[in-house]
Amino acid sequence: xxxxxxxxxxxxxxxxxxxxxxxxxxxxxxxxxxxxxxxxxxxxxxxxxxxxxxxxxxxxxxxxxxxxxxxxxxxxxxxxxxxxxxxxxxxxxxxxxxxxxxxxxxxxxxxxxxxxxxxxxxxxxxxxxxxxxxxxxxxxxxxxxxxxxxxxxxxxxxxxxxxxxxxxxxxxxxxxxxxxxxxxxxxxxxxxxxxxxxxxxxxxxxxxxxxxxxxxxxxxxxxxxxxxxxxxxxxxxxxxxxxxxxxxxxxxxxxxxxxxxxxxxxxxxxxxxxxxxxxxxxxxxxxxxxxxxxxxxxxxxxxxxxxxxxxxxxxxxxxxxxxxxxxxxxxxxxxxxxxxxxxxxxxxxxxxxxxxxxxxxxxxxxxxxxxxxxxxxxxxxxxxxxxxxxxxxxxxxxxxxxxxxxxxxxxxxxxxxxxxxxxxxxxxxxxxxxxxxxxxxxxxxxxxxxxxxxxxxxxxxxxxxxxxxxxxxxxxxxxxxxxxxxxxxxxxxxxxxxxxxxxxxxxxxxxxxxxxxxxxxxxxxxxxxxxxxxxxxxxxxxxxxxxxxxxxxxxxxxxxxxxxxxxxxxxxxxxxxxxxxxxxxxxxxxxxxxxxxxxxxxxxxxxxxxxxxxxxxxxxxxxxxxxxxxxxxxxxxxxxxxxxxxxxxxxxxxxxxxxxxxxxxxxxxxxxxxxxxxxxxxxxxxxxxxxxxxxxxxxxxxxxxxxxxxxxxxxxxxxxxxxxxxxxxxxxxxxxxxxxxxxxxxxxxxxxxxxxxxxxxxxxxxxxxxxxxxxxxxxxxxxxxxxxxxxxxxxxxxxxxxxxxxxxxxxxxxxxxxxxxxxxxxxxxxxxxxxxxxxxxxxxxxxxxxxxxxxxxxxxxxxxxxxxxxxxxxxxxxxxxxxxxxxxxxxxxxxxxxxxxxxxxxxxxxxxxxxxxxxxxxxxxxxxxxxxxxxxxxxxxxxxxxxxxxxxxxxxxxxx
Length: 960
Fold this sequence. Notes:
- The chain is α/β, with parallel strands linked by helices.
- The chain is flat.
- Keywords: Glycoprotein, Immunity, Inflammatory response, Innate immunity, Leucine-rich repeat, Membrane, Receptor, Repeat, Signal, Transmembrane, Transmembrane helix.
């Protein structure tokens, strides 16, 4: 009847005349329109701890498959162009939304209307040019809004009307140009506390332009604007405590403040880069004379000495920052008036020389920052600071340290000397630093410690020696550091650790030894036996290698009973690696073990019998291939398991492991193709599953996994929509979740239950009916026989509307019009029914088919390959054959337009069945005997329909 292109999309709406055809048709169409349900398998994002993370996925629109329970949603660094009203419709619990670094130029009205819980919104680095009316409607709980680095030029009067609880607003790096736009922003924000307007091309600041705004601002940033005139004639900022008016404008700013009390509460002032005549600068500083605590004067090009002298006369000012001021030296009188300063930051200058008495007047100085300068040694001026507690000399040119460099600094608590060129230490270097707690010596060239830590620094809690050139740690090297808690020795060249290298470090809780040259022989000495309080030990990227799994005589961590985290990594060797069976002996409190990328080929069944509390296990990037069935038995508390790139052929090793608490499983890039239902059932607490990079089999073996992945709402199957089929070949390259597994799912127990129930009910009904209504049934039976006889008689005598109904595919229509129609209707005078000509418009298609078949004496099926592929043609021949078998009448004529071998008819069971019982005509085999073909067809049409009549042989040649 059709080619399936348009008609196949139609759905039946009317009833069918024939009850049996109605049932067949409904079954066929119902199956074709059912689609799979999808569960917690997101197409583009991942969810972790109620946060949806969709960073760098090249998304052009907001995904709509995010669970409604998430509270955080990160869509930063994508390609989203527009925010639509339906994008966040179901995310009513969302509190944080990050849209940073997209291409958003339009936000539809009502896009945020349902985000009633949202507190933080980030729209930085997009392409918004205008904020439309009511664009933020619904965000009544919002407290923080960032719209930095857009192209905003205009703000509608009601844009911010809903943001009545906003406390922080950043509109930096836009094009607001004037305070009129700012007033529209502020007029609906009575609780706004901090406003950032950096780099908005504001040319003037007139307080009268903001007088209609009700402001409770505590902080405002107007820096990087070319403000030529700053005039305040009314106290519009009565609660202002932090004020940034720094500028890169080359011409001086005109400063006019009508009342000395207008800025009287400012405690933190930043005038970095501001150009102003000395008189106006003095006026400004006088306005904050009674409240100023912190002053920043970075990148000041003129009058720096005068500004320092003026600011240091403010009695309350205690913190002074002078970065990027190109100070070549610090003279003895530069800070002579700064007697109240307690924090001084001189970093990022070009200081080479500091006079010995440069800080002599800073008797109260506690924090001194001299980093990122060009100092060749520790300046002697730092020794004359009796109150100094923090000294930062990092990133200089210091090449040596002397015994007197830190003399008399008995109150120093933090010392930073990293990123210098120090080759070695001395035993007398830290002798006066009795109170030192933090010492940073990383990224130097230290190759020898020379007993610098054996006797002093009893209060030191953190020591950074990473990034140096240490090759060995001698016995008792850290003996004097009784309070040390954190020791960083990574990225050195340490080959040797003596048995008592860490003696005295009884309070050490964290030590990093990664990226050194430690070997198995080093661990054989049991160098960690003194670290009884150690909690975290990192030994990744060393030379530790075992080629046996037998027990060690002295396990390396046997005395670290409080250790909670252990990481080992050996990626510099190739070949066979193993772990001794008792390698982890003694680690009874271990919570995390990381042994990735060690080329391990075997793990003994008792490897983890010593770690009953283990919660996180990472053995990825090894070559284990198979786990012993009892390997995970001791790990009853395991919550996270990483087994990616381990050459695993199956996950069945987890079935009997009883990992009932496992929540996170990552098994990327392995060799298994099937995830059995038993594996999933063995992990009842699983909430996150990552199986990326495996080659799956798309057949019924994975039906259980697919059904679970599509319908489970608790476990997230990460990136499941990109899992690819590798077998069978016909599915190769297709995605796993698009495999239709419904035919594989058969609940035998349920079917047996239903069948048994039906049989029992039928038996009960039959028994009841026979006992109470058997005579009524006998009477009804004879009435039914009479009605049936009458119906058959009427059907036999009823005239037909057509002689034949022609069933064909639209691709074969030219043959029907040019050959069949002229012969049968034109020459032989038969009345034919054709769908495109005789079907009643507006009538359900299945009704037309039924009426045509039952309203015609015969049905002629014009069969071709396209006919067999058409869904509607299939329904037509099913209906005709149903009439043939039901009424036992010779009503079906088969005409083959092309030769179709038997093996191509194998998928069409009904067609092969008809060929065994019905003769047929073959147009290709007619050849030069076309007239004989039409004569045979005419004789078939003349034949009566009685079942007792002899069939007329319609074949011209032998059947295919």
